[in-house]
Amino acid sequence: MLDRIGRSDGPGIIICCGSGGVGKTSLSAAIGMLGALSGRKTIVLTIDPARRLADSMGLKDFNSEAQLVRLDQFLAASDGSKGSLYAMMLDAKRTFDQLIERYAQGDLRKRIFDNRYYQYLSNHMAGSHEYMAMEKLYEIHRQSKYDLIVLDTPPTRRALDFLDAPQRLLNLLGHSFFWKMFKPYFQAGRWGVRLFKLLASPVLKAMAKVIGNQALEDLAAFMQLWDDLLFEGFSKRASAVKKLLSGNPTLFLAIATPQKRPLAEAMFLYEKLHENQIPFGGFIINRVHRPHSQQNNAKDEIDAYAKKLPRDLIAKMRQSYSDQEKMARSDAESIAAFRKNIGDGLGMVEIFSAENEVVDLNDVYSISKQLASYI
Fold it and tell me: Does any domain span residue 46?
């Protein structure tokens, strides 16, 4: 499932999804590094508000501009690869503003930016951030500046919101409830707002008492701008984004850990993608515990020190060894059951649990080497 990442005919977009706390950010960075070390110009995007990606990549000032990640020492060790790695934090508000700048000019653009309902929509409305993340992904893909785009997403069910966000936002703003109330006033042209104030229906007047006249007028003004100017453009972009996600350039990966809930979330994601005929690349099971017997002769070493170290320390070492073996057996049983459940047709990769948190590029490189071992 990973052998095409470094190839020129490999996927142009890899989207990493999964429940919270499974290591999507670190794995997104590692996949990005693997692409770069394979010779591809790669960018890693995150819509996760946490700044772990910046920390792990050594970026002090992480923002909405693409920033080069220094991989000199790693590139030198990879047969002189000419690849490169960039990282970017997706800024939903700025992306929304850029869309308005594309579709509106001059005074009309100013009216939209000054509209308080637009300000709320672009900052807080459910689905708007995911919509703008999709828009930015589409924009970067269209620029053709990168061979590979790796996207780190929020937890699984929000990631599915991320997939549906364009259509959900359009459905909300195009809902008949709004148009039954506002449309008669829009059709009155420049007199619409004045008529709206004078002739508003009882429902609208009741809404005004709850949210205030100015807020209702802002909503009406935005809906008119949306109807006249924005709806068609946004609709076309939403269709284009959906087509991109469903096409050959895109590959989804489900990230999980060996525990029951993350595995169930990963299966849920796969089933939903399958229902929507969206390309699925496989599962990455992260933080898998290995038996000590696969790593070293830990038990023999403990026995060797039994007469040299205090008894209580030896007891703690033996308990630690036993706990590690127990976790390794539990992980192996969980993964075996999951393999049986998904069948032979889907790829799966295991990444062993690290001793410490991923905090810098060396840690990311260690994960990328594990990924590379499957190629």
Answer: yes
